[in-house]
Request: fold
Amino acid sequence: MLTIDLNADLGEHPGTNLDEQIMPYISSCNVACGGHIGDEASVRRTIRLAKNHGVAVGAHPSYPDPEHFGREILNMQPGDLAESLKEQINLVRRICEEEEVALHHVKPHGALYNHAANDRFISELILKVLEETAPDVYWMGLANSVSEEVAHGSAFRFIAEGFADRQYEVDGTLRSRTKQGAVLKPAEVLKQVEEIVFHQRVNATGWLPLKVQSICLHSDTEGAVTLAREINEHLVDKGIQIAAAQ
Reply:
């Protein structure tokens, strides 16, 4: 049976029940851990929620930039960036241990994720941080990216990720959120998921090959809860098993 992981970035919407609504339909989550949003209380709450639903837990570190929600590249000294990422990952790791939950993966957020996908230095910095803080987990990143090359070159376990709700550029990168059409409309999401899962391709003004182990649906996308349910039900109806990558 074909298996795919469905993941979502959670712990990002304080004062709402969005996480509770999305969690039943996914198999792994990426927990915001203070870089772009989040604190010890929100991390613990999200991890407990994931544990209750049998959802794999990942840390979701970013540039330390709450002002821009981690969606702008910061000009930081490499050592300072590395220390910030270690602090964020270690927060999630510690709370996972306290809640008796295994830390499954680390997925960078926003600008850090996209920067690493195209920049070997940043990917190698992330790799060094992971080797120090979480050598026994997976690194989740953009499929067909520099991050994947760096991980495979070091034999670090990597989960190649695709996106349900984001438009791809012809080079396989994600369209910047500053550009029109970067986030797909709800009617387009299910179609893109089906192409990725069943045909291992994505439409970027022409078809690009795209083989992934995980698909992300952003929790702040319009209609995210409905989309999560529809994606889950559609894939299960097609005989796909939804489970965290192993």
Summary: The mean pLDDT is 96. The CA atoms of residues 176 and 182 lie 6 Å apart.
